[in-house]
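To make this tangible, we now present a fold written out as tokens:
***
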Amino acid sequence: MKFGCAQGELYVGFVLSNQLGNRLITKVLKPGDVFVFPIGMIHFQLNVGKTNAVAFAGLSSQNPGVITIANAVFGAKPPINPDVLTKAFQVDKDVTSYLQSQFWCDNN
């Protein structure tokens, strides 16, 4: 995805895959800056300015799809074994059980 900042300041980034050491790549975009998110990478954008931000995204398809990680992991049907999530996220089993008990809406 190509992502351009038209107004404000945006902190953007993505995480490289496991094979690449889960390295975080970030940048603060100012008006006129463009950032490219590689296909399939977990990515984010956050307004860090003192005003509203405006950005434009160019995608590779009319419907590239969305995977909301929390919904997919903690809202899986049937549920993922909490022991798996406890190890993966390195949190207490009570935390994973609590998160799995929450209502995870489908935002696609």
Summary: The chain has a mean pLDDT of 88. The first strand starts at residue 2 and ends at 7.
